[in-house]
Amino acid sequence: MTNHPVLNDVARALFEPVVLGTLSTINPDGGPQVTLVAAFLDGDELVHFHRGWYQKLRNIERNPKVAFTIVPPADGLGTPGDLQPYLVVHGIARIQVGDAGPWSDRLLDLVEATLPPEASFERPEMPADGGWTTHITPTKIVGVGPWMS
Amino acid sequence: MTNHPVLNDVARALFEPVVLGTLSTINPDGGPQVTLVAAFLDGDELVHFHRGWYQKLRNIERNPKVAFTIVPPADGLGTPGDLQPYLVVHGIARIQVGDAGPWSDRLLDLVEATLPPEASFERPEMPADGGWTTHITPTKIVGVGPWMS
What we know:
The structure is a homodimer of 149-residue chains. With 149 residues, chain A is of the alpha+beta class. Chain A has three helices and six strands, in the order H-E-E-E-H-E-E-H-E. A six-stranded antiparallel barrel of chain A has the order 1-2-3-6-5-4. The longest helix of chain A has 15 residues, at 100-114. Chain A is globular and about 50 Å long. At the A-B interface, strand 1, strand 2, strand 4, strand 5 and helix 3 of A face strand 1, strand 2, strand 4, strand 5 and helix 3 of B.
């Protein structure tokens, strides 16, 4: 039993295995703040992790209302009858302390899998306190595309 | 003489001839609202047009602080040392009444030019009052990429 909207299968597929999208939060001055983040789906929640106590976390602590937006790659501009698809998940975010490690490992494994075998990169260190995760419970799903049906 | 940040040439090139990006505004409940829009550069301002008096216009009327975000197409997830590029233009928006027609024509011409010759689409009608445009004056430019140097 949930009283919040649930992403349909097409929407869920966008998150497999992870998706880059923009997170909009509210700055102290009441205006929007936007950053690009990698998000996972965990049950019905969106999850992303943080290695530092960034502005977006301070914003969420003050005002948990957020929007996460995915614009899947497409060529062209769309037409008035066939608009460019995108998905916006409005939601309420809660911050969890100390559990960023597994999510970071999961992302870094995926990144590594996309690189040529000879390529390598330095795995960034997780802070001693284990970083932070943000968990977003969807409250409203909007946009254009098959996830709206 | 300006007291606001100016987009550099790499950033300006993203807008040629037009760019799809997401506009974040502030809803009446104080949370973010996000929609995908086509934006032009007009001098140092970002311009987009509206055929209807949409939620984002009502939001801007109440709170003119906005953020416009471009995530250029890229393959992969980036790596910790080479992050996926994106551009966020924070700014103050003002709404202008009645002048959407020329901007709409400009976009529709561009859309038509991308379609195969045999393709056609219905040009949507502009409302009798001429629609609306939003003009965004940048106040802060953030993100990852060559537009940050």
